Structure prediction request, 1009 residues.
Amino acid sequence: MTATATTRDVVGPGTKVGLRRVPRWGQALFVLGIWVLVWAVMRGQDTLILPGQAKTGLHDSMSQWKSDLIAGRDDNAFMQFTGWIADQIEAVGTWLQELVSEPAPPRPVPEIGWFGVVAVASWVGFAVAGWRIALLVLGSFLAFGLLGYWEDSMDTLIITFFSVAVALVVGLPLAVLMAKSTRVTAVVAPVLDLLQTMPSFNYLLPVFLFFGLGIPAGVVATVIYCTPPVVRIAAHGIRSVSGTTVEATDSVGQTRWQRLRKVELPMAKSTIVVGINQTTLAALAIVIIGGFINMPGLGGPVLDALTGQQTGNAFVSGLCIVIMAIMLDRTTTAASVHGEKLARSGTFDPRRHRIVLAVTGAVALVCVYYSRTYLKLAEFPESALGPAIGREMAMKVQSFADWFTSTFDAWTTAIKDVVSTVLLNPLQDLIANSPWYVTAVALTMLALVVSGLRPALITVVCLTGLYLSDLWNDSMITLTMTLVGALIVMILALVLGVAMARRPGVDLVLRPVLDAAQVMPAFVYLIPTLLLFGPTRFTAIVAGVIYAAPIAIKLVADGIARVSATTVEAAVSSGSTAWQVITKVQLPMARGNVVLAVNQGLLYVLSVVVIGGLVGAGALGYDSVLGFSQSQYFGKGIAAAGCIVLLGIMLDRFARGAVERQQRNNDILTMRPISGAI
Amino acid sequence: MKRASKARQTASVGVMASMALVLSACGSGDIEQDAPVASGGTDSAAAECGDLNLAVNPWVGMEASVTVVGRVAEEELGCTVNYVKTKEEISWAGFGSGEVDVIIEDWGHEDLEKQYFAESGDGTAADAGPNGNEGIIGWYVPPWLAEEYPDITNWENLNNYASEFATSESGGQGQFLGADPSYVQFDEAIVENLGLDFKVVFSGSEAASIAAFQKAEENKEWLIGYFYEPQWLFAEVPLVRVELPPYEDGCQDDESDVDCDYPVTPLKKIVSTEWMDSGEPSIDLVKNFEWTNEDQNQVAAYIADEGMSAEDAADQWIADNPDKVQAWMPS
Prediction:
């Protein structure tokens, strides 16, 4: 469905279609038509359904591998080694915790109390990014305490910093190597693909096997998830340093090391900072999932609230994550331009700047001293403000959610039923209830006519993998949900994106909401969504849409905003109506962004598919959760993880192929889901 | 320009300085003086009891049991209690690595027992006896349904109502709401072997099942699904059990042939053998711990219904039931 919509956008007006061939959307419709005919005859045959609690020999053999691994863990040298690494991480982590979040025996409180932490953090904000950021940091830290999650927030910050530090130590050299060598790229890029498409839920168990629970497991899981963005983006930055600059500096006889250090790294600096920024946000996306392996931090309270159906509490702890994300995002972004800004201001006096830093730093140290001395400054105090604020807010949100769900659930149930009957069920019937070989051929043909030969070959490879995993039917159901989710995302993106681009007022109101929706973990709104839509595939789709819509809407809005004003004016003056301007000028000219939005929509929706397993959507999400929950289903969970990766690669290449056919030379840096709430 | 940047810097110095001033105003005493107060005078006991790592699996009932044991261990024995929050399977594997000492509520995991008990596995885990709770797993309907259609509580009549139970997910058949994948469940086999015209749709999590039953009762929707006692939801929505062919020994031995109800499961305490040999005073507490379904439901309702923190809920129950707590203490 989405496939045809995409094609139509891509081949929209203005594209020259060769006379001798049928347009691509026509070919795609033709393939679809044949598919429907065959389906009508063969429906229900060879669908390879595997019931939820069933597993196959392949799955059992993978489960056995895991059991053997555990049984032999005392003699396994590699596991001893990873255990040793875990001990080191644990030691550093505990030290950091005792510094700021946990009692440091014999003291009943951490080494540095909240007051000292707030002062030092604000000072760091000031030093790296100026006084505005210092105020933002100050406010954020106070909010953690006032909302009642000081310790958990500190723990999350510790894990985040720790993980990002490791990610940079590993990732930056890797990025340099990738930028320099196509061979390294060929090896590393698929691994990055794998790490980013695999839902983090699926590697929790392997991480536990090798690194145990708590801080080490949390850090390792986070590093796995957050390293790819910085590698990818930094490599891209270094590679894009202009060739002429490099040649010019080479001509004065520099060594390769000098070239890297003096030319390439400094010139790619701003892109590298974008990478660090993305890596930091990705690290925060693991916070909730980490709660499943006892990672300290804000994940615990969110999961507790989930088991107790307390939306209010989930919201407040989720809010701390949102605040932290905004704080870290703005700080890293501002820090990247801060030095230059100071230097360019003309009146910058490095000596005085150093003095100011030293004085404020000294004050921060005094605060640390006081926070070590006075209990009230060590433990965030119960005061008139907080954490009563957090409790109050939790109660308000709870009663709002209760009111909202009980008032609107008749409506929402109706919406769910209509979408399920009209769209979801028929599409799933076609995709999952056709014989597997019919679906396979049809999908391959669609990839061929819409995206080209290479994507079609990749589709064949991926489909073969799905078939071999023994989870074909579940994969097809998940694929259907992803397509429907992406379709809803695109409708929202086109409507709201156009509105945002055309009316600054709408943009002003909507953008912060989108930012928050992007960072707010899906677990926070799971209970209300469940109460509105029941344990269904549609609930999973809603979670996916909430998560994927913001990026798609922003992409469309930005694309349209970039269409030159003169072009639009010309259209208006030639008598076009607003509708004509939108459909004939703005959308076609923003085509690149629109197709990119489709790509991102698909991948983002797919990346929260595991959540679907927790809310009654079944399919691969359920298999993943099952594999994590029950020992004898481990193999099935791993197979499901593989299937999600294969689906991700297939959809990505499909959508990218469609773009590349359109604009071969347009260098789009495809950004993958950074935050996979799961 | 110059003035602006100067003002900016002065401002930030001012912020810091005024913070320092605020400090001197709130002199609440020296931390070293507060220290003994804050750690609660447990120093003498702390010398005897070390760390106690209690697994918390993701359902409120277990959280209730764990936290009550944890609070008693902290307050009475002076142990340092760590709550290890994770799923069952990981908790079991955690015995061998020393990360988990006790699972206070186990619903029976044959495969895990096989891997970790001494008889057939690596011997890192051991059975420490029943915890007094009785797990009653079964098929349940919301109370309004049982009231309006009394015969629905017998499985033989379920097919008459199958079409009423149909949803957008069940493809024309009646929907049976399966449970959180962590739980022991045979519903697909039972449906098949009893010839019921139902499709099992897995809720995927306890949270989703609870939400579904709440919604069904409130809106008088048709719903049948897997549920269990003890569970705090019964205080709010007293679900009614549907009778299946009664459980007989052996009728659940082969997973694909199951055609009977679930047996009443005495919930067990599973412990780390290494910890059992450590001589910690908390061992006796865990061995002696026993309470009823009502006790657990009470604490769970404090947490889930009244929104108390687990610790407050446990403290409340401990204060109300000194005799029961006393009976668990090491002799």
About this structure: The mean pLDDT of chain A is 85. Chain A is about 80% helix and 0% strand.
